[in-house]
Amino acid sequence: MTTSAVRVVLRARPSDGGTCITFLPDKKGISIVQQKVIEGRPNGSQPASQSYQFKFDNVLAAASQEEVYEAAASEVVRSALEGFNGTIMCYGQTGAGKTFTMSGGKQSYKQRGIIPRALGQVFAEVKAMPDREAKISVQYLEIYNEALYDLLDITTQPHEISIYESSRGLVTVSGLRTAVVDSEAEALALLFEGETNRVIGEHQLNRESSRSHSIFTIMIELRPVGESGGDVLLSRVALVDLAGSERVSKTKSEGLVLREAGHINKSLSILEQVILGLGDKNREHVPFRSCKLTHVLKNSLGGNCRTVLVANVWSDAAQTDETVSTCRFAQRMMRVTCEVSANVVQDSSVRVRQLERQVADLQQELAM
Ligand code: ADP
Ligand code: MG
Fold first, then answer.
1. Residue-by-residue DSSP string for 73-132
2. What is the CB neighbour count within 10 angstroms for residue 27?
3. Residue 210 pLDDT more than 90?
4. Are 85 and 305 a contacting pair, CB within 8 Å?
5. What pTM was computed for the model?
6. Are the CB atoms for 309 and 251 separated by under 8 Å?
7. Which residues line ligand 1 at a C-beta cut-off of 6 Å?
8. Ligand positioned closest to the Cα atom of 97
9. Nearest-atom index, ligand 1, CA of 94
């Protein structure tokens, strides 16, 4: 068992105009100057400035997608192939580059984001293990206003998808399509299908993607070739594109926007409480079940998981307040450490887990 902190990587997207961030040469620190207007001074409103310093595990300014992958993801994926669960989350305001970081840009192959690169790494590394038989599967879930949507099957309605937790605390999302993929190309085709469905949901069903969380999960099962009853490695990597963290002004918004903002604020704040709770040995209750995001991610944030938070910031001077707020969130995550251990199980336990999943699915069918 090793101890691992939540790793925090800051990525600043290139700024079109003036920038509010100064990058320190050690590539781990930044400083930000925030201009503030202080009301009520004797000679009227006066501008004042406040400066902040933040330290992270890694700061990426004008970095390529490849550099981001190396800094944030390749180690997590390598560990997953050794049986450790992993989670990589992109956090930040809308427009800061979360989806660009996770999924990538469409203009060139070089712009591929973390998800396609992770799939590439998984299949390349599995190929290099001739003594192992691998089963790779994927799921793609979207959470919008606390409802669950299957991005790999848009015919599934939110009420058909539910979170089931076994008595041993194993969380499964039942009703969600789990697609077994035999090749990188097959997995990429599904990713593309899911991304397209996310856009369709946005245009036809008014599910604004910047207001939803999406979780692409790669599930890995590795067993010795030709042996039954031996050790099986089971792991999963959750790749999470979080909803925009910007604060929506209550005075300026109403109806749906306000409801969305309420759900987002709540789930991001519960995510923070859960991560802080996991790092606090004295804490008895970690509020995983308080929102769908943390409940779904329960096994991906818990004791045997490597977690990376990519804090996406938009370095334009006009975005300073949100940049400071994202950095503060990310800084709080840096204090968290948790125990990590590999998921090596006997073949019989794999069977127990499969049966638990089947029970969940049957219960789901009975409930419908
Ligand atoms: P978010 O998902 O955080 O709302 P996006 O990833 O959609 O933000 O990014 C907003 C826009 O900025 C997109 O057009 C995206 O292609 C572009 N963009 C974001 N980050 C970068 C980057 N590092 N380099 C180039 N373009 C970027
Ligand atoms: Mg986005």
1. THHHHHHHTTT-EEEEEEE-STTSSHHHHHTB-SS-GGGB-HHHHHHHHHHHHHHT-TTE
2. 15
3. no
4. yes
5. 0.89
6. no
7. 13-14, 92, 94-100, 105, 210, 244, 312
8. 1
9. 4
Place of tokens 């996770």: 102
* Beta carbons within 10 angstroms of residue 356's beta carbon: 17
Exposed/middle/buried for residue 108 (C-beta within 10 Å: 0-12, 13-18, 19+): exposed
User: Mean pLDDT across the chain, nearest whole number?
Assistant: 87
Phi, psi of 186 (to 5 degrees): -65, -40
Angle between helices 114-127 and 65-72 (to 10 degrees): 60
**pLDDT the model gives residue 1:** 43
- The DSSP code for 165 is E
> 217 by DSSP, 3-state: which?
strand
Residue with tokens 């069918």: 365
Q: Give the torsion through C-alpha atoms of 145, 148, 153, 156, to 10 deg.
A: -100
Ligand nearest to the CA of 209: 2
Q: Which amino acid is at 151?
A: L
